[in-house]
Amino acid sequence: MAQVRLSGIAKAFGKVTALDAMDLVIEDGELVCLLGPSGSGKSTLLRLIGGFETPSEGTIAIDGVDVTRLPPERRPTAMVFQSHALWSHMTVHGNIAFGLKLRRLPRAEIRERVERVLDLVGLSGYGARLPSQLSGGQQQRVALARSLVIEPKILLLDEPFASLDQHLRERLRDEVRDIQQRLGITAVFVTHGQDEALAISDRIVVLADGRMQQVGRPGEIYAEPKTAFVAGFIGAMN
Ligand code: ADP
Ligand code: MG
After folding, report:
1. For atom 1 of ligand 1, which residue has the closest CA?
2. Does the pLDDT value for residue 69 go beyond 80?
3. pTM over 0.80
4. 215 by DSSP, 3-state: which?
5. pLDDT of amino acid 103
6. Whose CA is nearest to atom 11 of ligand 1?
7. Whole-angstrom Cα distance, residue 185 to residue 153?
8. Ligand 1 mean position to 103 CA, how many Å?
9. d(CA 153, CA 29)
10. Which of 11, 19, 34, 44 best tests ligand 1's pocket when mutated (most atoms within 8 Å of CB)?
């Protein structure tokens, strides 16, 4: 089980209201995209779910437990960032194994789990390489593997492939969707690309100025935009 329930969430940074009046339930096993332009509050919302920030108002519960009450090592979430997230002096194996070593798992189990996730992201045999010996796409695959290896219930991705070219971005987003469904985990995927959101989501949350504009299945959002903003934003790239 991994259900995320946001109730009456607001987040302010000084005088800037980053998020306001957010109520949302993300169901177990769903992939939800947070879609909106730059500055709309997507990363802030993701960071709140991950427990990196605390809400100014409201609560976020994962399977009924308030996220802010869970110490970091007990949070069932893992985050994938856009870039620069790998440790350059560590091998691929070392990067992925790091979180497991912190948890003091036996060496044989660490080796087995690292190999399993490398296989999952299509990088079997790359364990001894350094990040600098990988392409940008391969580095993001390692970042994904490093998040998956701790077996999170909820995967949080913040524009994970935004720095890659379109072709690679499309391939990797489809791979993420496939892995997420195979493992049956809940995922929240931040993007400013409507094509990406329409392609992989169970549901899309459209954000603008820190507020939810519309929540719905890709077909609904596309065919029946509720506001002029949603219509314009979804239509912009098609
Ligand atoms: P997005 O990810 O959609 O681009 P963000 O969640 O990063 O948007 O930002 C939403 C708003 O909150 C923006 O106005 C941004 O400047 C502001 N903001 C985000 N983080 C901080 C912070 N740590 N301090 C001050 N303002 C912030
Ligand atoms: Mg962002």
Report:
1. 39
2. yes
3. yes
4. strand
5. 84
6. 18
7. 6
8. 32
9. 9
10. 44
Dist CA 79 CA 112 (whole Å): 22
Ligand 1 neighbours, Cβ below 6 Å, are 13, 16, 18, 36, 38-44
Q: Which residues of 66-89 are buried (b: 16+ CB within 10 A; e: fewer)?
A: ebeeeeeeebbbbbbbbeebbeee
Interface pTM, i.e. ipTM: 0.98
**Distance from the alpha carbon of residue 122 to the mean position of ligand 1, in angstroms:** 34
Q: Count Cα neighbours of 227 within 13 Å in the Cβ-side half-sphere.
A: 12
Say if CB 44 and CB 53 are below 8 A apart.
yes
Highest mean pLDDT among 22-31, 63-72, 93-102: 22-31
pLDDT tens digits along 1-21: 789 999 999 999 999 999 999
Ligand 1 atom 21: the closest Cα is on which residue?
Answer: 13
Ligand nearest to the CA of 16: 1
What's the 112 CA to ligand 2 centre distance in angstroms?
Answer: 34
Which residues share a beta bridge with 17? 12
